Amino acid sequence: MATIYWNDQITDTSVEVITLKQDDLEESQALIRENYLNGNIVVIEDFRIPIDLEIFEFNSLPQLPNYGSIPDYQYNFFKTYFKKPRKTEKVIEKIYGDSHKAVKLRKEMNLAQEYVFNILANIFDSKLIYKYEPFSRLNLDISTWRFTDTVKSGYHIDEYPGINFRAFWNLSDNPRVWGFGHKINDIIQLKIDEVVRFMKEPKNISSKGFIHFHQREFNAYLNNFLNEFPTHRAEFNKYDLWICDSLKVAHQVISGDKMAGFTYPLMNNVWKVSQEIHERLDYNKYVLKFLASHLKGKQITKKQNN
Predict the structure, then answer these.
(1) Contact present, 257 and 150 (Cβ < 8 Å)
(2) Cβ neighbours around 117 below 10 Å, total
(3) CA nearest 47: which of 86, 21, 72?
(4) For residue 256, which of 171, 193, 165, 143 has the smallest C-alpha distance?
(5) The pTM is what?
(6) CA end-to-end span of the chain, whole Å?
(7) What is d(CA 153, CA 242) in angstroms, rounded to the nearest whole number?
(8) CB 168 within 8 A of CB 113
């Protein structure tokens, strides 16, 4: 069961946490969908994927001080599998010391990713997400399996490009502890003057005077301020699955070890399937719509050369 510790001293955060049981999934699809799109965190407690869970019962590996060495222990499975197959085998065999168990582990990882994909496809729409095809060279899944002790991160919103569905699954006996609380809109509101300065930079204004920016660059800019913010705290226990849009939900990994971070890219033609979902999932539309309501009276024009 996930445990949430609310910080009573925080009044400027809007992220909510919705907790469900695995048996509630079917009847709660609309609830999950709405809260994901609203930038909240949905926790499905003790989420048992029907695979051989015992194969993950190994001690997590220690995090290495040399960041460049981390891929030997902590890796993106599919990207590594096709580009560096020997390194993938080395990672898994280092865990087990047994090539046969390494093959079995790889199979269970694929089954887990496929199972979570199907859950999300049912909640949103299978036409919205690129079809999951294990071992396909065209597979766009970019999920990450972490088998190391986690080094505490800063409070941040993710900076990756594109639009993805995200879910996280704790595989450890130890809780995975997150700091959380602010949606990207909360951050913009709290740092509106800084945001206006960012938007006034010539590179962020088109020749016709429209605001345009890259989500990775904007989130990186906002992350400069986040460590001064207090947070609430969540402890996700073994097999808890939590779903949230980490581009829009600020979070801090405080502690934990073995876990899977599932990432499934959105289809390019999502707007043809559901204009409403596209409007709410698309990062730029989501942010610009909020900015429009908070930049009234604040002049943002392209600087003219004298």
Answers:
(1) yes
(2) 23
(3) 21
(4) 171
(5) 0.85
(6) 62
(7) 18
(8) no
What are the beta bridge partners of residue 74?
Answer: 146
Q: 130: buried, middle or exposed (CB in 10 Å: 19+, 13-18, 0-12)?
A: middle
Q: Tell me, yes or no, whether 133 lies in a domain.
A: yes
Domain membership of residue 258 as a residue range: 13-294
Cβ atoms within 10 Å, residue 79: 14
Q: Are strands 17-21 and 241-243 parallel, antiparallel or unpaired?
A: unpaired
Look up the CATH number of the domain holding residue 189: 3.60.130
Q: Report if residue 8 sits inside a domain.
A: no
Per-residue pLDDT of the chain in tens (306 residues, 90 and over written 9): 899 999 998 888 999 999 999 999 999 999 999 999 999 999 999 999 999 999 999 887 765 443 334 444 444 443 443 344 455 566 667 667 777 787 788 788 888 988 999 999 899 877 777 666 655 544 455 678 888 788 788 999 998 777 788 999 999 999 999 999 999 999 999 998 898 888 878 776 666 555 666 788 889 999 999 989 999 999 999 999 999 999 899 999 999 988 999 988 877 665 555 677 767 777 777 787 777 776 655 555 444 433
Is 5 contained in some domain?
Answer: no
Cβ neighbours of residue 21 closer than 8 Å, sequence gap 6 or more? 44, 45, 46
Smallest Cα–Cα separation from 55: which of 11, 19, 8, 106? 106
Domain count for the chain: 1
Domain assignment present for residue 159? The answer is yes
